[in-house]
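Re: folding output
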Amino acid sequence: MAGYELVSVITTPGEFTEVISVGLDIPPALTNAYYNALYRNNGNGTFQQVSSAAGMSDRFANTQQAQWVDVDNDGDLDLYTTNMGNTYSGNEPNRLYRNNGNGTFTDMATAAGLIGPTEGNDECSAWADYNNDGFLDVYIANNSWVGPLAGPHKLYLNSGNSNHWLKIGLTGTTSNRLGIGAKIRITTGNLTQFREVGVDTSGACHNSLLAHFGLDDFTRADVITVTWPGGLVQVLA
């Protein structure tokens, strides 16, 4: 790819129909045009690029990190991208793509107050329920040594809604104590959700190791299945 600078390729765990990957798709005819891309898993070893159809199109964003998080506890994973911008566009706002539940997303970053520090050069985000109210909050770290786009770090409190939630913390005995690598599935009604406990977030940030699930208007999970790294399976019903 002569003439192109590959800034970053980002993968992040999550389920959108099946599994998706967020990375850079660089059209050869566009110099210095950086695009994020959403690929839907067809379930047969192939992927389909669905960015435009899904309502996602970030150009020149220079995205440093993408994270799947359920910010509104409705049971659907939303996508938050942390954007650094570049010398062509200046600082770029972060994006919060709310999952509409039908294969499309709506950017709600401005309405939610999550575009990030406008004077900054955002590097990464870390998600955790720091005030223990059941909703994920976010800390945004800036690459503050880079001028002229340097800016402060920011902590954003999620104001929440009436949806319910479930947090699961694992303690291993035969597996590693933190449960790294464990896979958790919960079923509420006809919805099954999946999380994997890990340290796989990119950039210089790390999320909480608590597995967070939005339950929408359900008050409990019907079935919880934990598959430990050693192969042990625990089912709670």
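--- second protein (sequence, then structure) ---
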Amino acid sequence: MRLFALRSSALGWCAPRIAALVLTLCAALPAPSRADDRVRVALVPLVVHSADGRDFLQRGLADMLVSRIGRERRIAVLPIDDAKAATADADAAREVGAANGAAWVVFGSFTHFADGASLDLACTPVRESDGEPRRIYVHAATMADMIPLLDKVAERAAAIVLGGADAAPAAASPPAGGEPTPPDRDAGRVR
């Protein structure tokens, strides 16, 4: 009997303290957040035109674009890892975006020629098949020169996605040894 009485008093003493500890821990946990309201953007694998290292270039460019576009906190980038999905066709890209629950899709091509490189991206809403995609175009004299240009490309893509079709063209980077080429406002290209 005495053993039972000891256990009862120990439980009586511990139970309120355990309950207080559990409540304190629960209060310290972050509250469940509301639904993710970021704009979902599918990054479709780029079509790569190169004599060598196509897979390497495709994966590397995708990784760099995902990280750079993803800097914009209002955008959730959905990298599409299936190399067979690579396309420069807007309708095919929209299908990939729709299949992955995206509101927007970024797609295009990368061309590596001699020492130079050219990146031609397009951004379009998944649900709007009527309008022309907004285009972003950059070129560099060397592959090494292309990497810093990706920051501007990502900023431009984010501006298009967040600002819709009326986003103003971003300032162009100057070609090696020259002045910036003005944006082609009709096609929405940054040269």
